[in-house]
Structure formats: C-alpha cells, structure tokens
Design brief:
The protein contains 2 helices and 9 strands. With 110 residues, the protein is an alpha+beta fold. Strand 6 (78-83) and strand 7 form a beta hairpin. The longest helix has 13 residues, at 7-19.
Length: 110
C-alpha cells in the first residue's frame, strides 16, 4: 500500500483522537473508499479496533493505518492532507488516480 499522510494531518489526527479519548495504542485509523457523492465515490476516515483478514495494515508517522483491499487499490499513491483556512477546513486527499471530482471536492470518480 502506497499512501502517505502529511505532518499537519498526522498532528490533527492525534488531536482528534485525544479529544475523543481514543487510545492510539489499541485503535487504528481506518481509511476507506465508499460509494457516494455526486462523482460516485467518497473517502471515509474513522477509528477501528479490528483488522480483517483481507485488510492491509501499515504504520505512518507512528499511527497505525488500516485499509480494506478494495480501498487500498483506489488509494494507491494518495496523500492525506489537513487544511485550516479559507479554502476549507478539514481532511482532504490528493489522489492521482481520481479522474474527476465534484465541485465541492467531497467525492471523486475513476
């Protein structure tokens, strides 16, 4: 799996985990691609404590990250960013495989 997370996003993920009382020693960040949005696919981030047989597990910047096999294919080469400014706050993916995205940037297509 070739996915990266910027330092800003790692810092914000740790901040969110702390605010939500998430123990990162026992909890993983699950990144997934799910059907939805006006372009067909959306990104999903969440905390998880289980790893399925078909999941791919890696560590990025000290954070354990898990993706299901299908999402890993969609996210290969992607980078997770966090922005805090006029262009919109939040987590955003730079995905070189996305061939289109909606105007609001919340969904993508391939």
């Amino acid at each position: 799996m070739d996915i990266s997370i910027t330092q800003e996003a790692l810092s914000q993920l740790r901040t969110v985990a702390s605010a939500e009382s998430v123990d990162l020693d026992d909890t993983l960040l699950r990144i997934a691609v799910v059907p939805g949005g006006c372009s067909g696919l959306t990104y999903d981030l969440g905390w998880d404590t289980t790893v399925q047989d078909e999941d791919q597990l890696t560590e990025i910047g000290g954070l354990r990250v898990v993706l299901d096999a299908k999402s890993a294919l969609y996210l290969d080469g992607s980078e997770l960013h966090f922005t805090d400014g006029l262009q919109g706050d939040g987590f955003h993916f730079s995905n070189p495989q996305a061939t289109r995205s909606c105007a609001c940037g919340e969904s993508f297509g391939m």
